[in-house]
Every structure is written in structure tokens, then in C-alpha cells.
Write a structure and sequence with these properties.
Order of helices and strands: EEEEHHHHHHHHHHHEEH
Helix content: 55-70%
Structural class: mainly alpha
Largest sheet: 2 strands, antiparallel
Distance between the termini: 75 Å
Number of helices: 12
Radius of gyration: 20 Å
Length: 264
């Protein structure tokens, strides 16, 4: 009679438990032979060790170190996805930033690996994936802006999310999509016209995070003139978190609007 050992795969996304990468709908027990269980434990330890190493690099914003690691061990690119859910918001955002840096280095020799990663991020936008990645749009944008010629087909995919995603999903993704469009900036010049109505509507959203990032997005895309006459936004003192230059800064909607109008 075979002796089998149970192994449950569970990961966490933010504050709600998600069981992945197996089903995403609940804990699933895999009955493994003892040898397989031991092998799985070794893989888990190696993955955990790499994750800790990457997290330290992110805390110190050592982007060169992350690129070197990803070049040697390409699974580091996948580890960055899980780190976007880190309990420290700054680490999570730096994981997004590092995704672009790591992908840029890997693409030098293996662009197909990066394209596969982009497909995975897009897949992780859907419930069918079994584990939604809330920062998938930002990760895709960071990769594309580093290698625009290689992955320019993803520009339209990212920008179109603001108009094509269901409203119930946009409730969670809208700020990140707006940030992603802003990061693409001039690269999205052809696609921005179709998305402009949704970006404009975001200026009147009840969530100040959405209002502020929408104003910032228009500035990054060279559409700051659309903020002309918006005195209501200039006087809006609600706080907004913006990730730029490797740090999270807290500004107000008014400050972001003023910054765009001055630049314009």
C-alpha cells in the first residue's frame, strides 16, 4: 500500500486569501509520494529564499542587482508578481518597477520569455486565472515602456482596459490602469484618443485616488489642456498616493492638477 503525504498550496493576495496557482477557489490537497513531497519542499525553500533576496533588493531599490539576478535566474520575474502584494506598499510598487527592469535585461537574450510573462500578466487580469494580479496593468506598462519596439502590440491592450473592462472590475483596477496609461505616455499617442472620454470621466470620480491619477495621466500623455477651467480640481485637497522615481509620495488632487497645468 502506498504511503502518501498531503501538500496544500496556499498563497495570499493582499488581505484576502487566494489559493493558487492551482484553482484559486479554495485549498486543494495534492497527495504525493514521500519522495515527491521532499522534492516539493526543496523547491519551496529555494523559492522562498529567492523571494527574500528579491525583497531585500527592492527595499534598497537595487535595480541593477535585480536585473543581474533575473539574468541568471529568470524565474525571478515571476517572483516579482507575488511581491506586488507585499504588505509594505512601497515594496509592492518597487516590484512593479523592477518587473520592467528585469524584463528589459532578459529580453536582450530571450524576448520570448518576456512575452510569455506579458501573456501571464494579461491572463491574471481575469477571474478564470484563479488568482487575480491587481497590479498586472502596471507591470505590463513598465515592461512595454522599457522595450516599446519589441512589445508595442501591448500598448493598445493596456490603454483599452479603461474602456473595455467591466465596471465591477474597474472599481479595483481603474487607478492602476490610469497610472499605466500615464507611464506609457507618448507611446500611447495613437491609442489615447479612444480612451480620452473614460480618462476625462475619471476626473469626476468619487475616489480622490482616481481623480488625482487621472489628472496626472493626462499630463503624462500631453493632454494637460483638458484640465483648463477645472478650478474644482485645483481646490481639491483630498490626498493621492503617487509612485514616481522609486518612491511613494502623498500629494493632493489640487497639487497634481497644478503640476500638470504649470507644465502644460
Amino acid at each position: 500500500m502506498d504511503i502518501r503525504a498531503p501538500c496544500a498550496h496556499v498563497c495570499s493576495m493582499g488581505s484576502r486569501p487566494v489559493f493558487s496557482p492551482l484553482t484559486g477557489r479554495g485549498p486543494m490537497l495534492l497527495w504525493l509520494r514521500p519522495q515527491a513531497a521532499l522534492g516539493n519542499t526543496a523547491v519551496y525553500r529555494a523559492t522562498s529564499s529567492m523571494k527574500k533576496q528579491i525583497r531585500q533588493l527592492l527595499r534598497h531599490r537595487d535595480l541593477d542587482g535585480l536585473a543581474d539576478l533575473a539574468e541568471r535566474k529568470r524565474r525571478a520575474l515571476g517572483q516579482l508578481i507575488s511581491l506586488t502584494f507585499d504588505s509594505d506598499p512601497l515594496v509592492g510598487w518597487r516590484a512593479v518597477e523592477a518587473m520592467g527592469v528585469a524584463a528589459d535585461r532578459i529580453a536582450e537574450d530571450d524576448p520570448d520569455h518576456v512575452r510569455q510573462h506579458l501573456r501571464r500578466l494579461y491572463w491574471l487580469l481575469s477571474e478564470e486565472s484563479g488568482g487575480i494580479c491587481w497590479r498586472a496593468p502596471e507591470g505590463m506598462a513598465e515592461i512595454v515602456r522599457r522595450r516599446p519596439r519589441m512589445f508595442d502590440d501591448y500598448v493598445s491592450i493596456i490603454v483599452s482596459l479603461i474602456g473595455q473592462m467591466a465596471e465591477e472590475d474597474l472599481a479595483y483596477f481603474r487607478p492602476g490602469i490610469l497610472w499605466s496609461i500615464g507611464r506609457l505616455g507618448p507611446l500611447a499617442e495613437k491609442e489615447i484618443d479612444a480612451a480620452e472620454p473614460e480618462i476625462n470621466a475619471s476626473l469626476d470620480h468619487h475616489d480622490p485616488q482616481v481623480r488625482g491619477i487621472a489628472a496626472w495621466c493626462l499630463g503624462q500623455c500631453g493632454r494637460g489642456q483638458l484640465l483648463a477651467g477645472r478650478e474644482d480640481l485645483l481646490s481639491d485637497q483630498c490626498p493621492v498616493d503617487l509612485f514616481e522615481d522609486g518612491d511613494l509620495v502623498c500629494l493632493t488632487v489640487g497639487e497634481l492638477t497644478r503640476r500638470v497645468r504649470v507644465a502644460d
